[in-house]
Design a protein that fits this description.
Layout: H1 3-46, H2 57-62, H3 70-103, H4 109-121, H5 124-146, H6 158-172, H7 176-187, H8 191-199, H9 204-229, H10 238-242, H11 252-264, H12 272-304
Helix pairs in contact: 1-12, 3-4, 3-6, 3-7, 3-9, 4-7, 7-9, 9-12, 11-12
């Protein structure tokens, strides 16, 4: 091989190596700055006592039933799991059905695409106001026309009604991005494949389960895994609904936000240091719980998911 050709190939390889190295440096830099850098103080506070010496006191307090916040954290922990489970079980099938309807270009599919994506365009606060006006206005009026004895307080009353109110809203506004990505992924399915399936006698359900789902399964698993990774920091729009009006009935993300933000507004209070230490430890414990669960679910989805083969 001529010497010039060898040099040219070596230069090309070095250029490719430099290019790929730069591509890898960027996400690593983002991780170092936005995770390690931002959370460095939280790591320090979680293992630092009030006297400045290393301690595991804050972690022990989290599992101590005698602590006043033990029941609150336990309830918020279970509510976060509940909201995620119900929202996922309902949202994923509905999003797939709407995406399939749009993919098939049935009547009004373009209008439905815009309508379902609208919540992602508007602010969550705007959607909360519209939802509250609808539920407490038009919906109440319709129900009272049907049942004159119905009172406004009867709707979504009690703990179960409160959960239903929040879950229903989050399901309602959770279709935009998923439907758009699902329908776009379905659009990449070769028309010849679906035509061949129909010629072989496949019906709509068989097309969905044997062609569509395997083709977009990677997108479905990504949404499930990323949602699981943020399960304990998701507020589920509780602040938009109630601001600081829910003290013992929110999710973990909402509870942590309320306490840390209230402490930040009164930095001069010496007792605030206790809150920072305790919630730093809580954050690390939740991270330790979330990471293995996320990787386990990711493994199970890949191991037992459908295949396009």
């Amino acid at each position: 091989m001529p010497e010039k050709v060898k040099k040219s190939k070596n230069i090309s390889r070095r250029g490719d190596l430099l290019f790929h190295s730069l591509l890898l440096v960027w996400p690593v830099l983002q991780f170092c700055v936005f995770y390690i850098g931002v959370n460095f103080n939280s790591f320090r506070l979680a293992f630092e006592g009030m006297n400045g010496k290393p301690t595991f006191e804050w972690f022990a307090n989290l599992f101590d039933p005698a602590q006043y916040y033990f029941d609150i954290i336990s309830t918020a922990f279970l509510r976060s799991l509940k909201y995620y489970a119900i929202s996922t079980v309902i949202s994923v099938p509905l999003a797939l059905l709407f995406a399939f309807y749009i993919y098939k270009k049935h009547f009004g599919s373009k209008f439905f695409r815009l309508l379902l994506f609208l919540p992602s365009i508007l602010s969550s606060m705007v959607m909360v106001v519209l939802f509250n006006r609808f539920v407490n206005g038009a919906l109440i009026a319709v129900i009272q026309d049907i049942n004159p004895s119905f009172t406004k307080i009867s709707l979504f009353s009690g703990a179960e009604g409160y959960d239903a109110y929040v879950i229903f809203f989050n399901i309602l506004i959770g279709f935009g991005t998923t439907v758009l990505i699902y329908s776009n992924s379905m659009g990449e399915i070769s028309p010849e494949v679906t035509e061949a399936a129909h010629l072989d006698g496949a019906n709509t359900l068989q097309e969905i389960f044997h062609i569509v789902l395997p083709s977009i399964y990677s997108n479905i698993s990504v949404f499930i895994v990323t949602g699981l990774a943020t399960i304990f920091v998701n507020q589920y729009n509780l602040f938009s609904f109630f601001k600081d009006g829910v003290t013992n009935g929110g999710t973990l993300g909402y509870y942590i936000y309320l306490n840390v933000s209230s402490v930040a507004q009164d930095i001069a209070d010496p007792s605030n240091a206790l809150v920072y230490h305790q919630f730093s430890a809580l954050g690390l414990v939740l991270t330790a719980i979330t990471i293995p669960i996320t990787f386990l679910v990711r493994y199970l989805l890949r191991r037992f998911g459908p295949s396009t083969d």
